[in-house]
Amino acid sequence: MKKEFTIEVKGKDWEEALDKAFQKAVKNVKIDGFRKGKAPKEIFLKKYGKESLYLDAADIVLPDAYSKMLEEHKDEELVAQPDITLKSIDDKKVVFNFILTTRPEVKLGKYKGLKVKKEKVEATEDEINATIEQMRSRYAEVMPKENGTVEDGDTAIIDFEGFRNGKAFDGGKGENYSLKIGSHTFIPGFEEQLIGMKTGEEKEIEVTFPKDYHSEELKGKKATFKVKVNDVKTTVIPEIGKEFFEDLGMEGVDSLESLKEEIKTHILARKEVDSENKFIDALLDKVCEGLKVEIPEVMTEEEVSRILRQYEENLKMQGLTLQQFYQFTNSDEATLRDQMKEEANKRILARFALEEIAKAEKIEISDEEAEKEAEDLANKYQMKVEDFKTEFGGIEMVKYDMKMRKAIDVLKENN
Fold first, then answer.
1. pLDDT number for residue 3
2. Model confidence over 36-88: pLDDT tens digits?
3. How far is CA 358 from CA 6, 108, 136, 398, in A?
4. Where are the beta strands (DSSP E) in 119-180?
5. N-term to C-term CA, the chain
6. What are the structural domains, with CATH classification, of the chain?
7. Which of 25, 173, 212, 311 is least surrounded, with the fewest CB atoms within 10 Å of its CB?
8. Cα–Cα distance for residue pair 284/289, rounded to 1 Å
């Protein structure tokens, strides 16, 4: 719901703002006959006009006008930043126009007895065994191979040089290069032809470069590589036994049975978190189906901006920028924002639903509860309490978060 509101600044307040704007502007001008920044006001106005001060003066009075607007509408729940425009301005006054977006009317449907099923979790023997194999692989060692014959999975230490029509080509030479057989990091067919070679053996290998190879000179062309195997190494995966358990360093794990139990506990814990999150999402989806509300466009856009910032942070953790993402995906910000609107509206509806449930259930959080929660969370994240509250958005945000979690508990308990 949108409301329009104007605030007028005039009289003494406006004159003082114009004077402050002059004091700021005169510092940066040089008028003949006066030192820089020392020209009298009447001389400055004669040269530049009072109009030159208007915008700076408007900037000076806007914070107070904004605060006054918020105070006059403190009982209304604003769901987005107000849209501010300069309606009119002259030497007598300035008028700001505020367009306020207030919380729309929300009608809550059924939120009890939803009969949403929660997924049961289990850790299968295959999952446990696969995890053990992954752990063994992490402790694998690459060691010299006794018989020195290259097999799939081995690492061959090779010298190589590539030739095209009898002439060596740029970038086709390497010495003591470690090549994992089966890694498919070389030209198709190269690694397979090394299989069966022995340490010290030399061989010529015929290959065809892929049609999409980066070099115009070589793409789709046949070439010959002269290869020498200097050494062969194999990956030795540790046996399950005392040494392996000691290497793991897991408390209480000293046998295959105890290792399986530990892994099973971890798998079940991870799956339980996933199951719980899916359960809550399903409950909220069900509640939102019966929710009647018209989401203001400005709320959607602000939520999209929030999601976009989160997305950008995730990309940074992967060493990418948004601009690089747009290049890789042949898209742009407008396209990405459009794709994010559905998720944004879903999040807004979920918040509306939980807020209405909190109202219906008369859920309130006391100052003492919120302070205790802030202290506990600060200790968990090893932060000072005041620093945590600042990062979290203040004690009111802590209260809001607690209220939303209690509303979720209502959904789960009454499912």
1. 86
2. 778 888 888 888 899 999 999 999 999 999 999 888 888 888 888 889 999 99
3. 34, 11, 50, 15
4. 141-144, 155-164, 167-180
5. 33
6. 2-101 (3.30.70.1050), 141-236 (3.10.50.40), 256-413 (1.10.3120.10)
7. 212
8. 9
